[in-house]
Amino acid sequence: MSLKKMRISRFKTILYNNVILYNVKEEYPEHSLFYINLDIPLHEDLKQLFSHLSDYLNAYKLNVLSGFAFGFKRSFFDDLPGILSDLIFLMHNIFAGCQIQLICTDSNKVISKYYQEGASIKTLDHLGSQLVYVSNIQPVITGNYYNQTFSSFMLMADIIRDHGISYKELVRTWLYVDNILDWYNTLNKVRNDFYRHEGIFDGLIPASTGIGLGNVYNKCILVNALCIKGQDTDDMIRMVDSPLQCSATDYKSSFSRGVEIKHLTSSRLLVSGTASISAGGYTLHTGSVKRQIDHTMKVVRALLKEENYEWENIVRAIAYFKKPEDIKYFRDYCLENDIDISYMLTVGGTICRDDLLFEIELDAVKQICH
């Protein structure tokens, strides 16, 4: 296998009219990964948008590994081009507009498999291991929130076991939860019970994001996951602590602050959804979104620095805002601190505590020097 350097490039394209596509390309000798963001203006013709986006992906021969679509209604989901059929469609405050983030590759060797309730798995050989994206996991039974959510986690377990993936290779989850503030304690209990039942607490606890958003499927929860399957995962995957925050397990929320994966020629840092929470686990700066943004970004900056990453290493990020009108304050912060927000998605969403106004998740990639 070639050990040539990984290279990151950023570019934007006018998809059509006034719709701009922002793209981060993570380039390797064998293939590239692409992180595509679209912030779609209000009142845009969404069916036309999907047609143009599908044409763009086909023109550059890109395969979608995973994708998030925010702010869409059921009617748009029903007429999707096939190449976009594996996105999960989430609903939020209409005044936040619509946003799409895609994780793609130009490899033609993506292996896909589909399961019940529309769940899918996409596998890509990558630098001696496999990137495995599991998408659109939904409850497979009816009943109370606990039982529905536990069934979702069990479906995820069945899917990854079906592909010979161990829990030490489950590195990240995304939990999109309808009416999250009504049953967040129940969600944490389900995850804790599942992790205890499956022995996950004895090994790697995945990074995670948990955000309050409804969905076009009228389900109480949607789950996406990322696994890294390899021969030496004990050496290549590790949990990462936050220098400025305690472990989330200290307040019975079962996720790690971050996970790092070391591939042959590059390393990847997955930072969990991060908000303005103190070293003791308490919310800081209640009522001030500006101060919450400032503190959260200090936490993220400290974690990146601790692991020897820079802002320039970030390839994908999603920032969530309880009030979409607060997005302007994040833009101001990034402008003042020379952070390019163009390649970050900013969306409306309810944070897991009623007094939290802002949360950000991100992935960073850097070259390993041998």
Task: Give your account of this protein's structure.
The chain has 370 residues and is α+β, with helices and mostly antiparallel strands. It has a single domain (7-367), classed as 60s Ribosomal Protein L30, Chain: A (2-Layer Sandwich), CATH 3.30.1330. The protein contains 7 helices and 19 strands. It has helices at 46-59, 74-78, 145-162, 180-198, 233-236, 289-306, 327-336, and strands at 7-16, 19-27, 32-40, 63-70, 88-91, 98-105, 111-114, 120-126, 129-137, 170-177, 207-212, 214-215, 221-229, 237-240, 258-262, 266-274, 314-321, 345-348, 358-367. The strands form 3 sheets. Strands 1-2-3-6-4-5-12 form a 7-stranded mixed beta sheet, with helices on one face. It has a 6-stranded mixed beta sheet with strand order 7-8-9-13-10-11, covered by helices on one side. A hairpin with a 4-residue loop joins strand 2 and strand 3. It is globular.
Q: Name the quaternary structure.
A: single chain
What's the CATH first level? Alpha Beta
Major sheet strand order: 1-2-3-6-4-5-12
How would you characterize the largest beta sheet?
7 strands, mixed
* CATH-defined fold name: 60s Ribosomal Protein L30, Chain: A
What's the CATH H-level superfamily name?
RutC-like
Instruction: State the total count of DSSP E strands.
Output: 19
Report the principal-axis shape.
globular
CA radius of gyration is 19 Å
Distance between the termini: 15 Å
Give a quick precis of the structure:
This protein has 370 residues and is an alpha+beta fold. The protein contains 7 helices and 19 strands.
